[in-house]
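Per reviewer request, we include the raw input and output of the structure prediction for the construct analysed in the revised manuscript.
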Amino acid sequence: MILNKVTLIDFMNNVFISFAVFKKTLYEMKNIKGEEALFKREDIPFFIYFVFKKLNSYFSTYGKLIICFEGSNSLQWRRNIYADYKRNRDKSKLDDEYLVLKETFPLIENLLKLYPCKILKVDYAEADDLIYVLSERYHKENEVTIISTDGDMAQIINKFDNVSVYNPIRSKYMDKRPDVLLEKAIVGDVSDGIPGIPGIGKKTFVRMMEDKSFFVEKMQGENKEIVKKFLSIIDLSKMPEEIKKNILDKETELSYNKFEPDSIEQLFFTYKMKDALEHWGNVSGDIAIASKNKELI
């Protein structure tokens, strides 16, 4: 049986990993010129080129994509359970470079509307929620590829067959991690502001997984409630049913955008993306072929 292919892109994850790589290149260039090593508004076209160089490779490889965005109030229901969920990221969002980076989001989205993709965003849902729900929807009759560096995606490949997670930084597919949810709830996750159980680190966690009696000992009293609370927000299967339904309904309503290479070329010209224009003829042809091939599967 030949399975159809569904490709899911974690939008913000891909933008941020592009930005991390981009800054290194930008700073090196500015240091050579004797300029301040800082991402400024005039650098936006170069960054957009950097992002689309990678996105174009995805379109050329996978054809049509479903690009998953954060929705409005995406953190709200989890913060209702644990108020400090991802609060550790708030300060960085006041950084001057982040404020400039934020200006690129609508520009990138407007360009993506001209590509063969669905742009999916749902109120009160994070991109992870969208990816989980779509993986659950499509995995039985499709080969689902998730493109993300987010370790939380391991819980999806643990649960569903025919789903893989490709890490574009490591250029490899993610391995299954059967204990990923318990580890995050018990040990914690600094990136999401999850503290875990006080006094339990990775070594203790490994022993807990190897020794059932030791696990039971450590999960007594308050610790059990701590883990239960954190699992309720990090286990993607536990999202509210209303949000899950909204994701399914919204994705059903969407059609793939029509590929408009001439309009994309015009925007590349408007954004003064000279390097993108030089290669666009070949790249657009590859994207058109990949998208057409996907329709034939």
